[in-house]
From TrEMBL:
<feature type="transmembrane region" description="Helical">
    <location>
        <begin position="320"/>
        <end position="345"/>
    </location>
</feature>
<keyword id="KW-0812">Transmembrane</keyword>
<feature type="transmembrane region" description="Helical">
    <location>
        <begin position="174"/>
        <end position="195"/>
    </location>
</feature>
<keyword id="KW-0813">Transport</keyword>
<feature type="transmembrane region" description="Helical">
    <location>
        <begin position="263"/>
        <end position="282"/>
    </location>
</feature>
<feature type="transmembrane region" description="Helical">
    <location>
        <begin position="79"/>
        <end position="97"/>
    </location>
</feature>
<feature type="transmembrane region" description="Helical">
    <location>
        <begin position="103"/>
        <end position="127"/>
    </location>
</feature>
<keyword id="KW-1003">Cell membrane</keyword>
<feature type="domain" description="Major facilitator superfamily (MFS) profile">
    <location>
        <begin position="225"/>
        <end position="428"/>
    </location>
</feature>
<dbReference type="InterPro" id="IPR036259">
    <property type="entry name" value="MFS_trans_sf"/>
</dbReference>
<feature type="transmembrane region" description="Helical">
    <location>
        <begin position="227"/>
        <end position="251"/>
    </location>
</feature>
<feature type="transmembrane region" description="Helical">
    <location>
        <begin position="294"/>
        <end position="314"/>
    </location>
</feature>
<dbReference type="InterPro" id="IPR011701">
    <property type="entry name" value="MFS"/>
</dbReference>
<feature type="transmembrane region" description="Helical">
    <location>
        <begin position="385"/>
        <end position="404"/>
    </location>
</feature>
<keyword id="KW-0472">Membrane</keyword>
<feature type="transmembrane region" description="Helical">
    <location>
        <begin position="357"/>
        <end position="379"/>
    </location>
</feature>
<protein>
    <submittedName>
        <fullName>MFS transporter</fullName>
    </submittedName>
</protein>
Length: 428
């Protein structure tokens, strides 16, 4: 295949994987919305709803490293298609069980666990494949399109689910989910996951534990990758301050109506969509780690600003508008952190280790979510929200200044800093 043909195929991939990701995620969000409301209506228990959330997080965190190993050692296309087929069969099995016996909470829990495991394998493999699906020049655009599909699904899923819930049974939600994944499966079957692969095919594959161990060793040898992983770990922990505290502060302390809180949360999804469009249309960031550091400092500052309604006497409308803007800004800066780093990692990490490194990163990030929620749940019950937000903001600023110090940035982007020094020398 010549370069022109490869470029055309990459263009096809750019739109195909965006469409497949958006359609499958849209179906997934519609089903999650319907199941959440169904469980609350059936049991009236917040714990039952929380159990569903655990079933959709914990299995993914546990199997992500294994998914990374499979992505690195086996056919990516086959892995993704098998995982998608697993999701279709799981939901099909739940639909059949519902028709024969009736839908039960425990059947939903079991199906959610299987769906989450399949999602881990397809998600990690897909993410590690982006650099081989498109040309390096359009990698940032591909990552932006990928995130755009996530944002559109996050906005559209609850809207469609809300419209369906009052008029259709749960069987309709299951059929929508299955149909979406069948379409995604057909689209992904036409893609070439080795189009821009630079990897030499190795006859003998590493065994699972040896493969995971070599992934750890690779991370230890790559100082910049290791730094990014630690930053990701701590930020996911401390960002729970707004994930947990946002709802608590806005609903409980400031007594904002749940309808208006929905607009506030939706502004975050809109912010992610806007940021994705910006990254998709602009040139690739030259110093990704430095750009992410600046975005992280701005995010920390915005977190500190979130206390303003707690210490001032704003009107109800002003307060709602203020948090709509804050959540929108949060999403913009969060994308400013994640997008350049993900593009940078796609290029920095060797193809042989990409799946394992990204899988381990996902496990570390996701494991921090429940820990952060528990820690901040206790903190908000013990200390004033104003103190928690300001202290957390200061901690995030400290982490970014220490862990992403100039010496680390110079090691990550020597070409940018060397060019800067050369320019200054010529000027003098």
């Amino acid at each position: 295949m010549n370069e022109e043909q490869k470029y055309k195929k990459a263009s096809y991939h750019l739109w195909t994987f965006t469409a497949s990701k958006m359609i499958s995620l849209l179906g997934s969000h519609v089903l999650s919305f319907g199941i959440g409301l169904y469980i609350l209506a059936l049991t009236g228990s917040a714990m039952s709803f929380a159990t569903t959330m655990i079933c959709s997080i914990l299995p993914r965190a546990l199997v992500a490293p294994l998914a990374g190993y499979v992505a690195d050692n086996y056919s990516k296309k086959r892995t993704i298609l098998v995982a998608q087929a697993g999701t279709i069969l799981t939901v099909g099995g739940l639909l059949l069980y519902t028709e024969m016996v009736g839908l039960s909470v425990y059947a939903i829990y079991m199906a959610t666990v299987f769906n989450t495991i399949c999602s881990a394998f397809s998600g990690v493999t897909f993410t590690s494949s982006i650099a081989t699906l498109v040309d390096p020049e359009r990698l940032q655009k591909a990552m932006s399109f990928n995130q755009m599909s996530v944002s559109i699904a996050a906005i559209g899923g609850p809207v469609i689910g809300g419209m369906m819930y009052g008029f259709f049974s749960m069987e309709a939600f299951l059929l929508v989910h299955m149909s979406a994944y069948v379409i995604a499966f057909c689209l992904e079957a036409t893609m070439n996951f080795t189009l821009y692969s630079t990897r030499n095919q190795v006859a003998e594959k590493e065994k699972v534990w040896a493969g995971l161990a070599s992934g750890f060793r690779y991370i230890k040898q790559q100082k910049v990758v290791k730094t990014i992983m630690w930053v990701s770990l701590w930020i996911n922990l401390f960002f729970s301050a707004i994930v947990v505290g946002g709802t608590y502060i806005i609903i409980e302390l400031l007594k904002v109506k749940s309808t208006h809180f929905g607009f506030i949360e939706a502004s975050g999804a809109v912010g992610m969509l806007v940021a994705s469009l910006i990254f998709a249309t602009r040139a690739e960031v030259k110093a990704p780690l430095r750009f992410s550091k600046i975005s992280l400092l701005l995010l920390a500052s915005s977190l500190g600003l979130a206390v303003v309604p707690l210490v001032t006497n704003l009107s109800y409308l002003t307060m709602v508008i203020f948090y709509i803007v804050i959540y929108f800004i949060f999403a913009i800066f969060e994308m400013g952190i994640n997008m350049p780093i993900m593009v940078y990692l796609q290029k920095l990490i060797s193809e042989e280790y990409r799946g394992r490194v990204l899988g381990l990163m996902e496990t570390m990030a996701m494991s921090m979510m429940p820990i952060g929620m528990i820690v901040y749940g206790i903190l908000y019950d013990t200390f004033p929200a104003t103190v928690i937000l300001l202290v957390t903001s200061a901690i995030i600023v400290t982490i970014s200044l220490v862990m992403l110090r100039t010496s680390v940035l110079k090691e990550a982007h020597p070409e940018v800093y060397n060019q800067k020094i050369a320019t200054e020398s010529v000027a003098n």
